[in-house]
């Protein structure tokens, strides 16, 4: 299936679930049919959820292709199967999480996270960018995270992979601008997807080899309950993130950084308010270890304020 003239070709990675699936469907169902979506996933056997959600758009404004961001061959094959290799908008969404005390995580597991979250994005950009440069046009969007801007305890390796990508993209953005190619980061806070479920399942199976009893206690009894509270109180939906992403790609001057959850703006600001890093490290320490009960109450209040009747979802950029 070829895109109709005037339609923008959008290729999205990791569309079997969550945010990627929702972005693909949102763009494919655009009322003015401005997009031809190439929704990719590493295992096409998982296509049913996407196909169901796409409805009539499937086979019209949405096509499916296999793509594993960890494989050079798969990336090359997928892009060479795109008509004229022409991609107007590349959305790098595929990603994996990793949670827990560093002592219990093998270097192999850490490499798997970097292979997907960092090298996966680099691989995609390397393959798509030369054609965008030739055409002097294109937009590359990267699904980063608030954790690409601010470290979060017990998310050390995941955070590092997102920081790596932020650094890579911040550097690339300058060169790409010279070729009229835009680069935008989307930085969600917690989002209710399988990501959260998969991480909690992994945690339930964890055995903590080599971790001392105090660290296990801080992780299980202090960090995990706070994390669940935060997800419940502040979590956005994949639809929220899809709407935000659509706004970013439709903007006449897309921003480089796009936090999707305004509740996180002050947290990120802490870091820039004190260049020594002391303010953010001490604040997070106190929030977790000294004001745990207060944090629980704050999250409960936030949860009430964001319940369905009072919900005021601020999708930034406003
Ligand atoms: N959920 C959150 O709280 C949150 C917050 C901030 C940022 N993010 C970011 O948002 C992005 C999407 O996550 P999500 O929340 O939508 O989670 P999700 O539902 O688990 O979706 C992740 C997607 O990435 C795919 N994927 C994993 N490894 C891949 C590979 N090697 N090649 C191709 N696809 C691969 C998964 O495919 P399979 O089904 O084959 O595994 C799945 O389609 C990630 O980059 C994540 O870091 C999530």
Automatic annotation (TrEMBL):
Pfam family name, one: adh_short
Transmembrane regions listed in the UniProt entry: none
PROSITE patterns: ADH_SHORT
GO cellular component, as recorded: cytosol
One of the protein's GO biological processes: retinol metabolic process
Domain called Ketoreductase: residue spans: 8-194
InterPro entries cross-referenced by the UniProt entry: 17beta_DH, KR_dom, Sc_DH/Rdtase_CS, SDR_fam
Keywords for this protein: Lipid metabolism, Oxidoreductase
The keyword Oxidoreductase is annotated on this UniProt entry: yes
Annotated GO MF terms: all-trans-retinol dehydrogenase (NAD+) activity
Similarity comment text for this entry: Belongs to the short-chain dehydrogenases/reductases (SDR) family.
Name of the molecule in the record: Retinol dehydrogenase 8-like
